[in-house]
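Long-time lurker, first post. I've been practising inverse folding by hand and with some scripts of my own, and I keep getting stuck on stretches where the structure tokens seem ambiguous. Below is the full token string for one chain I'm working on. Before anyone asks, I'm not after the true native sequence, just a reasonable design that respects the backbone. If someone could post their per-position residues I'd love to compare against what I wrote down in my notebook.
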């Protein structure tokens, strides 16, 4: 469903660009505002001392430095005054607020005179202008900020009730006003400066802006903390002075051309409004404070000014027919933006009503366009609508700004209006709604850039009016409340029509924003429906509505809205269908459906009077649903519209439930009645009809099923009788149609698929059925019959089993969560009916296994590969079905009667024993044995399902254990039987731990595991290890018999670490760790494993080292005993450095890697010669594991440095350590330049053991297997050279450094190697300096050439040759001709390049001619070849240009896939497949 975003006044303000005017007051400012009201005298004194300390503290910020300097100077001035006055004041250590206030005021007054003189000289003296800007920045701003912070302490009641501030208020006011004049004078004078005009203007403007913003902050603080005087005359004079200050500072800057200054003025005005309203909401003691009264006066001044601006605009608009002055329009827009954010915080509702009436007057007087083209008037209308919406909202109640009051620690509930205020707001909302319906702004015909926003805000205003009238009408005045609600519901159809038409107007635009505007208007439509319609439909209920007239009007309103909602299906709203259909249309339909479902579920007695209303709801819903479905048929060829309609239909299904939806939609009737007319059936199209609903219903039934089932949603409650009578009839019709002989095979297949889709709805009806007692038994019989027809409909098995499992889970969960009579009765019914279902499921498992057995027997008798694949797929499908059925059996076994379950279990075990003891028919041979194995696996699977249910007692588990034990011991049966037997044993160990951990049983199972090691099949190792892990968990470290078992099974565990199956290896590792826990003595445990290092086979020695690596990885970090053993372990494993086996080499290197990471600095240092010498000792092993060796060396270098490691490296490998040193230095330089490559961190044991790509140089020198690419090559996007496949070793050249440049191939520049600067434009110097080395590179094991220069080709002057991508034809030349062939290829590319060709010698010309002849002959031979070897993707190669094209008749896109055919990899065709893949990867054999 489309997103419904609530709109608040604060969010509107942010969209209009009013930053600080959004009501977010700084917490430090709030604390300063509250000081005169809530702070005690002692606390005020303490806070002032802390303030002085903060003012004098210095931080990195230059502002704090200047502030500290000014504060220190002021304090020094105060102390000098004390010395000149009475000596008794010298005993006062701390400066008082009054003293600091007077000193600051004197300093500002003196500075003011200085700045005035500098401004006068600015016109002729640029230096004077710069000096004045410096004075403002270094002195004026810090002094004003100091003054702002000390004002609350000067005005504190303990400080003589702020008498000094009242006395000096006129002086401070004049000083601030003069500073404002100076700020504006700076900007004006800087524009006329002569030299360096641009620089001077920028400096002066920035200083003036900062000065004005600081003046605004100080003025706001002064106005909000100044108390009122007790004298009437003084109060009037103070109010006049405050009005002057307010108009000269905050109000004047409302209309400043500088956005930052205007934004700061808006923020200060918001501070005044919020603080004044919050102060009035305080307790009576603080609300009577002089400061609070003065704050209210200041706020009233602001309201009056705003009203005056609006009045002036209205008078200028109505007084003459000429267009308004642009300045008046701009001033009005500024004030409206301020009001839109401040009105929600007005403490008197009459203020909001007053400005709301002003907005209506503006809409009526300037709505048709007073500007020349309507731009200004439309912008005014937009801001007016936003302000009107703010009048209807309440900031503390509706917006997030209500959190502000909680931050101010108000304990009074301010979210409820009084009855009188609520009545006034409701009356105003009614007037506004009537006015808006009559004066809709004509934004579609305006050239205003934000005309779409006007429609959006207009829709929000309509919704705000209706919501205010319906919801917020206080119940104290019943007559007024009822009248407001009645009026709102009578106007509801008109409002809905107006909002819907906004989508039409938005879609009519031709510009690119039409779709976006339509989407925004559609969101408003959706929001209106989702917020208003549930309120209106709530009056349908007689119990909730005491007035019948209200119910009648609500029904009439909804009836009138039906046709309006259906208008959304018209083609004119197509651009908004993707929003309004899944949103408003689906929400409206779902709201009516929920009311209908609630009436039906309320009981017969409550519904006697609502039968007529239920009929209306049923009719309305059918009309809405059928109209939506008919629209889908109309737009079937329009993909976008069809998707929107289907999404809306799916939303309606989830909103009303599938049962109600199916009751409204008829798949069978020829005609559908809508009202009084007969309309065309929805099911008349050839074979299509409404069948497209089935996938949507299936998706709706399965989506969020777990959440729906756990909740008490009324839409999930269903009747099994409806499924039995209505849904299954549809399935039977489809089944009969599939058996019709007149249909084609494709049509019959479609009908069968529909049968499965219809049955998939059973899942929904099993979520929360309410008629289990009456109809579940009948449905169960049908389900059993459907399961018996699994041969025709195999897909029904998972559908039905999943539904039964969901039913069992839901019934059990409801009975446990709420053990009511109904839930208990449903559980009992399901338990009784499960007696009939479980035998059918058991039989189904055997049938599926039998069919699997038959298919396997038939597969042995036939040689047809296609039929063999089909039968293999059927067997795989049957295996999955068996697993699904067994899961359902386990779930139903939890709730079926215990006696029945025990009897059923005994039959299964009895049949298992019979199958185990009987021998296969000798005449049948292999087929008979296979049949016996399948039967035994089936019975073992049933036993496993019953064990997994947890419903068996110990006697039954013991019986099954005795039946399974011979299968574990013996290897006479098929390997599948033993694997399934181990699965059953593992299930017993997991679900019945008490049974396994008993003393007698534990010893018995331990002996069973030890004795059966010889007879264990390979496929059963995984489950065997799991069983052993569960058994080891029950061992007691003090029991010698238990501890003696660990050495016996250690050999098997170690060998399983090298198993080819990943699950088996992981299970072996887990068992290894479990044995370590059970042993509880790591020293003895390591000794057991170390004994395997002396094994004869390399397999066992490698496994032992791997075990040591895993234990070190897991325990060395937190076990001190293991940490202390690491040096001796390292020395012991070091004896295997001389082992020539590759797998031992790999294990030892991995062990060293783990130990290097785990050992401490001091432990590792004595072993460095042994470790470094050992890992570099290998011959064959070093070639394969050099990446891991480099990782180890890099870690050692990081710990001990190159100077300590380099002497330990053998002489033949010194190039490696030199290369690593240079790469490290390069990485440091790149890191300093901010170009450091990412490097992964290995935290997983398997990654550490197997990873080769975490190289010391981020993979720059690591070769990736077959292709010869390095990791750096893949990151930079280089492509490998496809002409000649070089060996992997010769291609794995890393970055060239130092001495290696003299012996490696590719172009090298001599001059730059010697530090000279080479002019590459000079061809003579390039020819001398560029040298091409021999291509026959020395294949050193640790080569460090990775520049990828073999991918580029150069001429004899060093210029890069760009080829056109011609394929090179390689002949059957030997290795001796490689160099000549490369020269030939280069010359061919130069010739094919078109343009100039370099001069070649006669010998080279002969070679070129010979290469051309060879190429022609090769092409002729390729044409004559019967089975040409085409490269992969050659069919898409363009003949006229480079790249790929899609030709006529080709089904797939170029290089969409690489076809994999099993025939290509047989012995006969293997070489051909390898040659094809050679175009993708290098096919040359690896050099040894």
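-- Answer (accepted) --
I ran through it position by position. Result:
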């Amino acid at each position: 469903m489309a997103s419904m975003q609530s709109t608040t006044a604060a969010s509107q303000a942010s969209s209009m660009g009013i930053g600080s005017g959004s009501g977010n007051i700084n917490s430090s400012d709030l604390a300063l505002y509250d000081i005169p009201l809530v702070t005690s005298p002692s606390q005020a004194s303490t806070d002032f001392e802390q303030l002085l300390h903060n003012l004098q503290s210095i931080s990195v910020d230059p502002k704090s430095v200047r502030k500290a300097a000014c504060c220190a100077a002021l304090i020094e001035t105060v102390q000098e005054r004390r010395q000149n006055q009475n000596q008794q004041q010298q005993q006062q250590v701390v400066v008082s607020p009054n003293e600091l206030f007077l000193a600051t005021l004197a300093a500002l007054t003196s500075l003011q005179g200085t700045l005035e003189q500098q401004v006068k000289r600015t016109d002729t003296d640029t230096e004077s202008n710069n000096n004045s800007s410096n004075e403002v920045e270094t002195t004026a701003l810090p002094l004003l900020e100091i003054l702002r912070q000390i004002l609350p302490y000067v005005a504190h009641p303990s400080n003589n009730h702020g008498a000094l501030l009242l006395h000096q208020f006129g002086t401070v006011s004049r000083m601030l006003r003069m500073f404002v004049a100076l700020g504006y004078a700076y900007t004006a004078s800087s524009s006329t400066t002569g030299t360096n005009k641009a620089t001077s203007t920028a400096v002066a403007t920035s200083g003036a802006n900062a000065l004005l913003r600081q003046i605004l902050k100080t003025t706001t603080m002064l106005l909000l903390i100044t108390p009122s005087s007790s004298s009437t005359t003084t109060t009037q004079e103070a109010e006049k002075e405050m009005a002057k200050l307010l108009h000269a500072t905050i109000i004047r800057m409302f209309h400043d051309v500088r956005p930052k200054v205007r934004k700061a003025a808006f923020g200060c005005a918001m501070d005044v409004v919020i603080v004044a309203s919050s102060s009035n909401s305080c307790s009576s003691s603080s609300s009577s404070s002089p400061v609070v009264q003065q704050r209210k006066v200041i706020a009233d001044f602001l309201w009056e000014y705003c009203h005056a601006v609006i009045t002036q605009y209205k008078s200028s608009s109505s007084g003459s027919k000429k267009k308004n002055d642009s300045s008046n329009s701009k001033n009005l827009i500024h004030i409206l933006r301020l009001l839109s954010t401040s009105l929600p915080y007005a403490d008197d509702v009459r203020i909001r009503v007053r400005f709301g009436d002003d907005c209506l007057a503006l809409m009526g007087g300037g709505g048709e366009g007073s500007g020349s083209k309507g731009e200004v008037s439309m912008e005014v209308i937009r801001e007016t609508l936003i302000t009107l919406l703010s009048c209807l909202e309440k900031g503390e109640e509706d917006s997030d700004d209500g959190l502000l009051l909680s931050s101010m620690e108000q304990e009074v509930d301010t979210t409820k209006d009084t009855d009188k205020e609520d009545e006034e707001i409701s009356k105003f909302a009614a007037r506004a709604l009537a006015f808006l319906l009559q004066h809709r702004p004509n934004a579609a015909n305006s050239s205003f850039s934000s005309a779409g926003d006007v429609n959006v805000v207009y829709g929000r205003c309509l919704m705000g009016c209706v919501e205010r009238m319906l919801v917020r009408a206080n119940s104290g005045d019943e007559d007024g409340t009822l009248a407001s609600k009645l009026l709102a519901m009578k106007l509801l159809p008109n409002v809905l029509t107006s909002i819907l038409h906004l989508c039409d107007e938005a879609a009519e635009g031709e510009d690119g924003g039409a779709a976006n505007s339509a989407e925004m208007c559609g969101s408003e439509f959706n929001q209106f429906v989702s917020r208003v319609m549930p309120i209106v439909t709530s009056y349908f209920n007689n119990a909730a509505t005491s007035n019948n007239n209200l119910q009648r009007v609500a029904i009439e309103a909804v009836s009138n809205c039906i046709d309006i909602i259906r208008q959304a299906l018209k083609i004119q709203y197509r651009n908004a269908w993707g929003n309004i259909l899944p949103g408003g249309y689906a929400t409206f339909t779902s709201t009516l459906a929920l009311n209908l479902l609630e009436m039906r579920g309320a009981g017969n007695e409550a519904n006697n009077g609502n039968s007529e209303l239920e009929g209306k709801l049923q009719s309305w819903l059918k009309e809405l649903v059928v109209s939506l479905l008919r629209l889908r048929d109309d737009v079937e060829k329009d993909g976008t519209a069809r998707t929107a309609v289907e999404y809306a239909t799916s939303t309606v299904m989830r909103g009303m439930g599938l049962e109600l939806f199916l009751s409204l939609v008829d798949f069978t009737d020829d005609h559908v009645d809508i009202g009084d007319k007969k309309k065309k059936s929805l099911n008349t199209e050839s074979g299509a009809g409404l069948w497209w609903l089935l996938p949507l219903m299936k998706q709706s039934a399965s989506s969020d099923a777990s959440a729906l089932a756990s909740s008490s949603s009324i839409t999930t409650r269903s009747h099994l009788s409806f499924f039995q009578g209505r849904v299954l009839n549809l399935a039977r019709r489809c089944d009969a149609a599939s058996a019709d002989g007149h249909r084609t095979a494709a049509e019959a297949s479609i009908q069968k698929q529909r049968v499965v889709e219809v049955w998939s709805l059973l899942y929904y009806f099993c979520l929360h059925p309410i008629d289990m007692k009456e109809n579940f038994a009948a449905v169960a019989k049908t389900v059993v019959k459907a399961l018996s027809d699994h041969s025709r409909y195999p897909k029904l098995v998972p559908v039905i089993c999943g539904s039964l499992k969901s039913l069992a889970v839901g019934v059990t969960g409801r009975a446990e969560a709420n053990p009511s009579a109904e839930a208990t009765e449903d559980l009992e019914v399901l338990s009784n009916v499960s007696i009939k279902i479980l035998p059918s499921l058991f039989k189904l498992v055997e049938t599926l296994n039998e069919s699997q057995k038959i298919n396997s027997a038939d597969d042995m008798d036939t040689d047809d590969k296609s039929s063999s694949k089909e039968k293999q797929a059927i067997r795989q499908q049957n295996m999955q079905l068996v697993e699904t059925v067994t899961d359902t059996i386990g779930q139903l076994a939890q709730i079926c009667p215990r006696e029945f379950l025990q009897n059923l279990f005994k039959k299964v075990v009895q049949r298992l024993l019979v199958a185990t003891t009987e021998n296969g028919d000798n005449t049948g041979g292999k087929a008979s044995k296979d049949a016996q194995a399948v039967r035994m696996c089936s019975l073992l699977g049933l036993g496993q399902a019953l064990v997994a249910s947890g419903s068996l007692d110990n006697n039954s588990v013991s019986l099954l254990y005795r039946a399974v034990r011979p299968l574990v011991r013996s290897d006479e049966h098929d390997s599948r039987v033993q694997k399934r037997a181990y699965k059953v044993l593992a299930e017993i160990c997991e679900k019945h731990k008490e049974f396994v951990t008993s003393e007698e049983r534990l010893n018995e199972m331990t002996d069973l595991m030890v004795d059966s090691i010889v007879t264990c099949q390979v496929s059963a190792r995984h489950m065997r290890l799991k069983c052993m892990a569960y058994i080891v968990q029950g061992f007691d470290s003090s029991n010698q018999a238990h501890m003696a078992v660990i050495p016996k099974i250690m050999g098997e565990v170690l060998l399983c670490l090298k198993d080819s199956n990943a699950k088996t290896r992981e299970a072996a590792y887990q068992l290894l760790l479990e044995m370590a826990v059970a042993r509880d003595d790591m020293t003895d445990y390591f000794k057991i494993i170390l004994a395997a290092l002396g094994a004869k086979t390399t397999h066992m020695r490698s496994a032992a080292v791997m075990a040591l690596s895993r234990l070190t990885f897991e325990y060395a970090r937190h076990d001190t005993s293991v940490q202390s053993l690491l040096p001796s372990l390292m020395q012991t494993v070091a004896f295997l450095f001389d082992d020539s086996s590759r797998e031992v080499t790999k294990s030892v290197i991995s062990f060293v890697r783990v130990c290097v990471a785990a050992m401490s600095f001091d432990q590792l240092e004595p072993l460095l010669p042994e470790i470094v010498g050992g890992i570099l000792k290998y011959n064959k092993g070093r070639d394969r594991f050099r990446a891991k060796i480099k990782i180890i060396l890099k870690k050692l270098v990081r710990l001990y440095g190159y100077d300590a490691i380099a002497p330990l490296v053998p002489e033949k490998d010194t190039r490696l350590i030199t290369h690593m040193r240079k790469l490290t230095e390069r990485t440091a330089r790149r890191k300093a330049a901010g170009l450091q490559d990412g490097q992964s961190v290995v935290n997983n044991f398997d990654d550490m053991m197997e990873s080769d790509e975490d190289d010391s140089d981020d993979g720059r020198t690591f070769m990736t297997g077959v292709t010869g690419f390095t990791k750096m090559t893949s990151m930079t996007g280089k492509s490998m050279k496809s002409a000649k496949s070089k060996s992997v070793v010769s291609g794995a050249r890393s970055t060239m450094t130092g001495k290696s440049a003299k012996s490696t191939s590719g172009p090298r520049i001599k001059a730059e190697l010697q530090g000279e600067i080479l002019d590459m434009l000079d061809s003579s110097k390039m020819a001398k300096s560029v040298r091409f080395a021999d291509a026959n590179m020395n294949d050193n094991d640790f080569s460090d050439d990775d520049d990828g220069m073999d991918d580029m080709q150069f001429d004899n002057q060093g210029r890069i040759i760009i080829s056109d991508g011609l394929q090179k034809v390689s002949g059957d030349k030997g290795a001796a001709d490689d160099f000549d062939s490369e020269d030939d290829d280069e010359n061919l590319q130069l010739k094919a390049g078109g343009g100039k060709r370099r001069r070649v010698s006669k010998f080279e010309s002969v070679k070129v001619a010979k290469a051309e002849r060879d190429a022609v002959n090769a092409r002729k031979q390729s044409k004559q070849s019967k089975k040409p070897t085409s490269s992969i993707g050659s069919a898409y190669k363009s003949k006229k240009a480079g790249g790929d094209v899609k030709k006529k008749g080709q089904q797939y896109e170029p290089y969409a896939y690489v076809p994999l055919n099993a025939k290509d990899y047989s012995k006969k065709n293997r070489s051909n497949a390898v040659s094809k893949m050679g175009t993708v990867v290098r096919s040359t054999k690896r050099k040894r």
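A couple of notes from the structure itself: DSSP finds 61 helices and ten strands in the chain. Residues 971 and 1015 are 5 Å apart (CA to CA). Happy to go over any region you disagree with.
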